[in-house]
Amino acid sequence: MTQAKSKKASASAASREVGKSARIAVIGAGKMGGILLQAFLKRGLFTREQACATVQHPEKAAALSKSLGIPVYTDNVKAVRQADIVLLCVKPQVVRTALAQMRRALSPAKLIVSIAASVPTSYIEESVPARVPVVRAMPNTPCLVGKGMTAVSGGLHANADHLETARKLFEVVGRSVIVDGKHMDAITGLSASGPAYIYIILESLAEAGVKVGLPRDMATLLSAQTALGAASMVLETGDHPALLKEAVTTPAGCTIDGILELEDGKLRVTLIKAVVKAAQRAKELLIQS
Length: 289
Ligand SMILES: NC(=O)c1ccc[n+]([C@@H]2O[C@H](COP(=O)([O-])OP(=O)(O)OC[C@H]3O[C@@H](n4cnc5c(N)ncnc54)[C@H](OP(=O)(O)O)[C@@H]3O)[C@@H](O)[C@H]2O)c1
Fold this sequence. Notes:
Elements: H1 3-14, H2 17-21, E1 24-27, H3 31-42, E2 51-54, H4 58-68, E3 72-73, H5 76-81, E4 85-88, H6 95-102, E5 111-114, H7 121-127, E6 134-138, E7 148-154, H8 160-171, E8 174-178, H9 184-192, H10 194-211, H11 216-237, H12 241-248, H13 255-264, H14 267-284
Parallel strand pairs: 1-2, 1-4, 2-3, 4-5, 5-6, 7-8
Antiparallel strand pairs: 6-7
Helix pairs in contact: 9-14, 10-11
The chain binds NADP nicotinamide-adenine-dinucleotide phosphate (NAP).
């Protein structure tokens, strides 16, 4: 078989039209794996018959199986045997162990999509049988409400179909982009960790509302809807945030006084440093395992 033909054959099962006949196994259905699994089921990307999962502890497996209505095992081989797409959601330090456990059930007809931070596709490729396609993805927790941001990048044996299959998975839980693998740690520091930074900003704005006399619930609503509106303006107009900021900042008005306080408190440089540190840490997670 020519290389092109073999790539096509290997793509067929995994990319067997997500939402129609492809089956998924979520390996490590913890916080992020659980969020994705719930969202896929809720949005009808996979039926309950097309999905299964694994966790480490039997009691967790039983509870999750009951709440999701799908088989949840502690046996990775059993789960992988039933799947076309293997969504690997264990902690980076557990990736090698999980791959060793499932290795004998893997083949080039199955697609591995890993969301483990810090773990390059090459690391996974070394631990699985030859030519198994691997896609690395970096989602974030807003996937739970369909507002996630996920970047995907392909490994050595992942072709355009595999990438598209992976992108489609995350497209039902928000937006997704295909990127070069070299950007994945930066993306981890920006959009995967990012919700935590935004929650701190929202918490602070809500506290500020309380300080200026607003009820806490109302202050939280005002802050969150303002953040949602501002983000939507950036996404929908395509205008640069600086330009949109100018439109709010009337000469000698109130906003410029607020902005001066933000500059004095070094909000801008603090956010930049937060992303840089998180991206650096993303490079270290695997090394320290
Ligand atoms: N949290 C985020 O915002 C986020 C965002 C993007 C990417 N990620 C990535 O997602 C991955 C999971 O993070 P998390 O926060 O969801 O962690 P988590 O809640 O600790 O989930 C990990 C899950 O893996 C299970 N597990 C452990 N060993 C296993 C094995 N050998 N086989 C099968 N399952 C096993 C655990 O089972 P038990 O429940 O039984 O212990 C647990 O359910 C990490 O690699 C992280 O980098 C997370």
